[in-house]
Description:
Elements: H1 27-35, H2 60-81, H3 90-102, E1 119-123, E2 130-133, E3 137-141, H4 142-148, H5 152-167, H6 170-183, H7 185-190, H8 197-204, H9 215-231, H10 238-250, H11 265-288
Parallel strand pairs: 1-3
Antiparallel strand pairs: 2-3
Amino acid sequence: MCWICDAKTSEPTPPRAASARGPWNARRGFLLASAAVAAGPALAQVDVGSASGVRKLVPAETLETAAGKQYVEVLAEARANGTLAPDADPQLRRLRAIAQRLIPHTRQWNPRVSSWRWEVNLITSKQLNAWAMPGGKIAFYSGILNQLQLTEDEIAMIMGHEMAHALREHARARLAKTQATGLGLSIAAQLFGLGQLGDVAADLGTKLLSLKFSRSDESEADLVGLEIAARAAFQPRASVSLWEKMLAASGGSGGPGFLSTHPSGPNRIRELQDNLPKVQGLYDAARRG
């Protein structure tokens, strides 16, 4: 689904398996963190405009439910292969601790988060990959942590980026656009009254892991993730060092499997650098508080 989000290794995405839900003792911590989101939203510092209106063609509840089922299947496959990290894994504990700091700063970007059940899991894989599904289901692959030797601040930038895709409902918008194009404008117009769209959204849940985001989606996720991380007292400059590591790992090409429709590493770095002053005050205030 996202490399972040450009760079995927040749290793295939874990296949789906029969649905199975394993215990997660840390889930209560995420529910508590989600409750903290009830505080009033703060004024955004980065400028990303309004979320795409076309996303409303796909019911959010239906897509989030479908995403949750797909997430369970991915975890079940990883568990069957022995690649799903246990709750006591130090890297997983670190990921979940970072997420608990980020979650309280997500509501201003999407009021639906009050009903999301955030989850973070870690899968052993050489992939330089991490993703978040609609509804707050997050997965990291060990390759991106180990090969890039990420700091906590850099991990927060990746996680914030992935959260931003879910918060801004990029998958919902992309699927809506694809479906409207496939069905034709006349049928799409009828779907504003929902009609068969609920069934369509449920079927599309299986496509979430292969979904590719647009150039504007990627830039938007970079900036929203940057602000979320800064508000959680993670160093904004880590967004730049993260992409410098990405470029080094890819030989300067923008990332393994780089997609031409996405912004290049240098362009991404420049845009992040331009926005650092906008969030520096948020970081400073979070550090003092």
